[in-house]
Amino acid sequence: MGSISKxxxxxxxxxxxxxxxxxxxxxxxxxxxxxxxxxxxxxxxxLSALVYDMTCDxxxxxxxxxxxxxxxxxxxxxxxxxxxPWEPGVAISFANIIGMDHKPVSVDSRRVLERQVNRxxxxxxxxxxxxxxxxxxxxxxxxxxxxxxIQVYSLERASELEHVLGPIRRHLTTCGIPIEQSNPEYxxxxxxxxxxxxxxxTSADRVIMFRSLVKQIARQHGYLATFMPKPFLDxxxxxxxxxxxxxxxxxxxxxxxxxxxxxxxxFIGGMQKYIAESTICGxxxxxxxxxxxxxxxxxxxxxxxxxxxxxxxxxxxxSENSTRLEKRDAGADCNPYLRIAADIASGLDGLEKKIKxxxxxxxDAYKDKDSPLLPNNIGDxxxxxxxxxxxxxxxGEQMLLLCIxxxxxxxNFFRQQVTEVEIERYLTxx
Length: 430
Hints:
Layout: E1 13-19, E2 25-31, H1 35-41, E3 43-46, E4 72-77, E5 82-83, E6 90-99, H2 109-122, E7 126-138, H3 155-160, H4 162-174, E8 179-184, E9 190-198, H5 200-220, E10 224-226, E11 239-248, E12 251-252, E13 255-256, E14 259-260, H6 262-274, E15 304-306, E16 313-316, E17 324-331, H7 336-353, H8 378-387, H9 389-395, H10 397-415, H11 420-426
Parallel strand pairs: 1-6, 15-16
Antiparallel strand pairs: 1-2, 3-4, 4-6, 5-6, 7-9, 7-10, 7-11, 8-9, 11-12, 11-17, 13-14, 16-17
Helix pairs in contact: 2-5, 2-7, 4-5, 5-7, 6-7, 8-10, 9-10
């Protein structure tokens, strides 16, 4: 149990949570007098909490269904509780999930990433991951931005939003999520926050907690924070950008005197080989594919380039330590464990098999007609995932089935709707 059982002085409640299939943080609030017991024995929670859709709808999944009675699992704290500055007396801890049989749960997405981290270690590598998340700060009543016009990187716009972004940066850093910077992004109400790099599991855990806590802080300051990938058709979408570097002992093996190494090229080659069939790891709902359009700073084809934000993989060269790869295809709402796991697995395959990347793209990647297009709708992404034995080997049979079920349910939901746009366009004219 160790220090995890120790809670900050004055704490009356400890929040313990984990990331579900959709990367949403779920869990329980524990009175301080019961915290030591939770540290020893865990606390039970319905296994369905791992596999809800984003509306908390429950369906028969491979692991939780009417036949098995929707069983429990146990959650145990895995991080030291830290205070929530905006909730006096409340601390938060990230959870570790264990089945009632004391074994890992097959559809715990964190375990998927854990396997790839262990694989890298067995190969003698340590992976560092830095994350960038874009999101919108909206008026809760209108669900529209309070500010007007695009002011990307504007210090005036940043100052306008400082009453909410300032607390986000400060409070999250206090909570163990080290924020490096923030800035207005390429749409009204849109911002980006960068989280300092760390090992993959820690980085993914921070993304889960980040999104939950940002929503809480924003609400306290009169905003609705949303990580929906494309809330407005005529505005920039929100992405999840991951920066990867690969280390052997103290050396960044992606760097050769500050330039991309041969090993870095192999890693890109692996990423490219599996990027299409692992698309669902970065977008498991219909909306996620609405941002996959040319000239939206979201990649549309299987390209790579040096410092090129129109490419799927952007190579950032610099010092020996800073040379890295940025993967740019996922939506801000994605499950970070699955996305990062698939990226690492594909890159390691590239290293092991010495997979060469495609021809380097220079200039406008959207005009690169020689590079295959990436899936731009959830139907195509589902088809590729179903056909991918590689993705099954990475996620596991049950996890892959669950992801496909989730995607199909989202697709079917939208197929069953008649939209207001359709009624306006067709009802009186046809």
